[in-house]
Amino acid sequence: LRAQAAAQEQRLEQQEQRLHGLEMERRRLHNLIQELKGNIRVFCRVRPMLPEEEERKKGLAHLHFPPEDNKVLVLSRPEESHVGRERRGDVCYDFSFDRVFPPAASQQEIFEEIALLVQVRGEP
């Protein structure tokens, strides 16, 4: 019985060493992937409108989410908005991100997109 227990402990030790080695390899590969993609990611999530914003009819008409490209957000400012004393025609700004999430995006959808970027630290 003692011989079996000693053999099991030795096997457990070997498995823990193997697990540690595999975890280190996983981290190395994860970091390599991050470097290849670029270390900085910029995501944009447009929050849903608050009830008081809906009541005031301050909609999201000035934000456009091109259906063919989930990395672009277009902000258009109508003619009546102006900076300082200058008046300009319609102004349109294009912003590019690694991913844009519109107000209807769910937490699940967002988590699925960033899950591979998140590393969970193992127990010491």
Automatic annotation (TrEMBL):
Keywords: ATP-binding, Coiled coil, Cytoplasm, Cytoskeleton, Microtubule, Motor protein, Nucleotide-binding. GO terms for biological process: microtubule-based movement. Residues 5-39 form a coiled coil. Gene3D superfamilies: Kinesin motor domain. InterPro entries: Kinesin-like_fam, Kinesin_motor_dom, Kinesin_motor_dom_sf, P-loop_NTPase, Vik1/Cik1_MT-bd. It is found in: Cytoplasm, Cytoskeleton. It holds the Pfam family Microtub_bd. Residues 39-124 form the Kinesin motor domain. One of its GO terms (molecular function) is microtubule motor activity. The keyword ATP-binding applies. It comes from the Eukaryota. GO terms for cellular component: microtubule. SUPFAM superfamilies: P-loop containing nucleoside triphosphate hydrolases. Signal peptide: none annotated. Belongs to the TRAFAC class myosin-kinesin ATPase superfamily. Kinesin family. This is CTK2 protein. The lineage of its organism: Eukaryota, Metazoa, Chordata, Craniata, Vertebrata. The gene is Ctk2.
